[in-house]
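Today's session is about reading a structure prediction critically. Students often jump straight to the picture, but the first step is always the sequence itself: look for stretches that repeat, for charged clusters, for runs of hydrophobic residues. Only then move on to the predicted structure, which in these notes is written as discrete structure tokens rather than atom positions. Here is the chain we will use throughout the hour.
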Amino acid sequence: MIGGDLSKSNNIIISSNFFGYVTKGKILNRTGARINDDIWITGNLGESSIGLAIRQKKIKLNEIAQKYFVTKYLFPKHCFIGNKINNLATAAIDISDGLNTDLNRILAASNVGAQVHIDLLPLSTELIAYCGIIDNARQAAITGGDDYCEGLYNYTGTSNSHCQCN
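Below is the predicted structure for this chain, in token form.
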């Protein structure tokens, strides 16, 4: 994936870049989404943004919940799904600025629209417990951001293939 790195800190920040090779014709970008594509999301969304809010002292939770969400923010689990979906997906983006923003980036670049079934969004029981009601958890998942290790993929076809992060 290709993305940006915007940081604010009073401390030194070290950033890394990694380079590699992609087989010709196999790179996934934002411009390949098509009408009637499915939209796939890896992992639970919204948790990392709660962790960031805790670190910024905007919210305070009990110690167990606080540790859970801050860990999601500081130490996200990487989903190594790229090779599994490379032959299936038509477009891709990391969900760093929230599902709403990043999905709209794919839609604008591909010149298509989308109908999202928010009742199908993956939500953790921890996020639902923190938010109190499912609609608030869905809102957090849609707008939260900072889900750097989660991805959004568009898929066209009739295959019943399923991809999972392990």
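Discussion point for the tutorial: The first helix runs from residue 47 to 55.
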